[in-house]
Amino acid sequence: MGSRIMHAIIAHQVGKYFEVNDLDSFIIGGIAADAALTNKDASHFYKGSMEDFSKEIEVERFVSKYKNQLHKPFMLGYYTHLIADDNWYMGLHYLG
Predict the structure, then answer these.
(1) pLDDT class for 4, splitting at 50, 70, 90?
(2) Residue 46 phi, psi dihedral angles, 5° rounding
(3) Which residues of 62-78 are buried (b: 16+ CB within 10 A; e: fewer)?
(4) Using one digit for the tens of pLDDT, what is the confidence trace for 82-94?
(5) CA dihedral 76, 50, 55, 41 (to 10 degrees)
(6) Residue 57 is inside which H or E element, if any?
(7) pTM above 0.70?
(8) Phi, psi of 71 (to 5 degrees)
(9) What's the gap between Cα 59 and its chain centre?
(10) φ, ψ dihedrals at 6, nearest 5°
(11) Of residues 81, 58, 91, 73, the one with CA closest to residue 23
(12) Domain segments of the chain as ranges
């Protein structure tokens, strides 16, 4: 769960590595989950809680919900954001 700047950097590096054809949209997608005006639980596809270290991101739910749009650079950037945050939460499990 990093800053928007960190997510922009991650998206930029991943997008360059995979030669995404619309890098700007990919990077915007990479920060979109944090820019959402709605509840962050919804924009991050969270389940569980921080108190018992069970909080995680249901990446599969995102993929299922947006399977017909995953070819778009924005959605792939969003997916990258969720994976980065999920890895961060997995690190918390090892600390807890």
Answers:
(1) confident
(2) -75, 155
(3) beeeeeeeeeebbbbbb
(4) 999 888 877 655 5
(5) -50
(6) strand 56-57
(7) yes
(8) -80, -10
(9) 8
(10) -60, -40
(11) 73
(12) 4-95
